[in-house]
Amino acid sequence: MAVQSTYRVQVRPGFDLDATADLADYLAALGVSHLYSAPLLTATPGSAHGYDVVDHRNVNPELGGEAGRQRLLRALRTAGLGLVVDIVPNHAGVAVPPANPAWWDVLRRGRDSSYADWFDIDWNRGRLLLPVLSDAPDALDDLKIVDGELRYHEHRFPIADGTGDGNAREVHDRQHYELISWRRGDAELTYRRFFAVSGLAGLRVEDPAVFAATHDLILRWAAAGEVDGIRVDHPDGLRDPAGYLARLRAAAPAAWLVVEKILEYGEELPDWPVDGTTGYDALAAINGLFVNPDAEGDFTALDTRLAGHFTSWEDLTHATKLAAATQLLAAELTRLAALAPDVPAEQARAALAELAAAFAVYRGYPPHGARHLAAARAEAGRRRPDLATTLDAVTRRLRDPEDELAQRFPQLTGAVMAKGVEDTAFYRWTRFVALNEVGGSPAHFGVPPAEFHRFATARQVRWPASMTTVSTHDTKRGEDVRARLAVLSELPGRWGEQVKSWMAYAPLPDPAFAHLLWQTAVGAWPIERDRLHAYVEKAAREAAASTSWADPDPVFERAMHALVDAMYDDPRLHDELTAFATEITPAGWSNSLGQKLVQLAMPGVPDTYQGTELWDNSLVDPDNRRPVDFAVRRELLARLDGGWRPSVDADGAAKLLVVSRTLRLRRAHPELFTGYRPVAAHGPAGRHAVAFDRGGAIAVATRLSLALARAGGWRDTVLSLPVHQVTDLFTGRVYSGGETSLADLLADYPVALLAPPTDTAEAAS
After folding, report:
1. Using one digit for the tens of pLDDT, what is the confidence trace for 206-238?
2. Cα–Cα distances in Å, from 739 out to 272, 675, 753?
3. Closest CA relative to residue 444, chosen from 432, 454, 455, 456
4. Cβ-proximal residues to 195 (8 Å cutoff; 6+ apart), any chain
5. In what residue span(s) does the Glycosyl hydrolase family 13 catalytic domain sit (predicted)?
């Protein structure tokens, strides 16, 4: 079943397979072709996301098990829907050893375990280190033997055969593993992790036997026609992504296959046997389309004034990536340095860390990998000329594809980029946080329409089945929050004066973080107090500037939470914040509708993240996994189908109208979405329209609506439409074609979706 559009559901304990099955009729009515599910295999007990798989042989019993999956399949088939599943080849959950039979066996038998080759373990460095102890020097005194196992508080570990005599400490010292302080984990672990998460151990799926064992169930589903698409989590973490994807494609030749590959600005997806990415490249282009590029200088000046100094994005990210390489990922760095015994260990560590920090993309792939490595070598040499000889020696090794160092180094660069930029620099460089998004480049301020059209045209030619998205479970803030924040780029002076006033009235010791906090509040307001408290705690600790996860600063965090409380309790702050958010909300709604239509109508397979068919003010995970009120959405969709045409401010119903009518048209008439041609707007406000013809369906959206209003509206601006009649699916109005007034076309909504009249009735029903 061809994947035309997807709807992402975070299947999890509390919203299991049966609850998901109950959505089938609603999703069909919405217009999607496929349910796109979070991982379904058995995960760590209580996992809220499913990316910590512990048993690849079974459907997670906490989701309803195999019986629940069968009920879901029946519901989807009855509704005429297909299924896309998320798989996790890079790592497995090991935080609860008894839950993972393979890991438990490795702990018990060590190298003699039949699963010893499953996990990316450096056995040459001695026992397998597990960072579960407290930081107290006598932590092992709390170790006990219970029911033939070692117990440390709630943690359970196996005892190898013939090693159980004596007290707990003596037994522990005979095991294939060693329990160590959690603080030693980042520097000393002997197994590769997912980023710096010690509870996620790297898998060796480059081994055909490991691939077969960990993919057997998913591939049986695909062979049986029970899965139409596969989303591959984090391929950059694999030792040989290209080889892995070739094997996966051969095993599932008919599947729609997309990869969670984060492309940096201007980077191309390698020529892999896949249908495309999970859409972050599209998100960046769409997001930037509604940002005013002319405001960059104003926001740079504001950021400099607030912080008290100019912050270079390049220098900041180099510093945060270097810290990630040498601190959070020190164990992985040590392992790599050991692969260069001809170079003194500390020099090898320093050179590899500098190269990783200077790498401009997540990792290099042929044919451009050599170019990225050469650029990294030049930048590392500029910053550390004292390491020139070592850098040359290491770089020579990294150019050899058969060298183990060259094969493992890209696994480090991807993790360094993710931890250093996405999870640190994005929270420190707060010039304009609407751009601080996964797959985005905060240093590139906005995307002019011409640039977007070039991107979309190339996408139609090269990757027409790649996913598009504007929200995922990994985005730093929801699509409608970003849409409202984009409005600030249209009034930089007004925003600058307002935020300076707030920061003077209620100062925070870290002004850069305060700027992030105020932008977040304005973008998500009104937001429940506990949600904002939870967000700022995570954001501040991720920034690791004034506090951190490892060493929280209670003084700073009290001040930070006091500022959040003041937003609700201080009359002046509360009233001013409410007034400002209210002022920019209509323009934010315009941006929201515009970016949603562009995403759904542009080349690619559009995904709708759960709940975002209405206004959604979600922030970063876990906030964006909150329960969704589907009853409200069903009721509003029924009203729309009854002929109701809502105003833009009617509880997000206008967004639901855009989503449902666009998806239905794509499903009913895919032939109208087989090309891409920009449609020009002519007249004094032409730059405020973005329009394109997909081969019969024409999407029209408004950008920079505040500036448009200040300039007097559309006035005599017109759009050149086909000579035949077209109908706007959002209003039902018919246009005769030719030069059409944008003031008339966009009188009710800031967006329009035009199609031949014979196609619109079916698509609207």
Report:
1. 999 999 999 999 999 999 999 999 999 999 999
2. 43, 22, 16
3. 432
4. 328, 329, 415, 418, 419, 423
5. 4-395
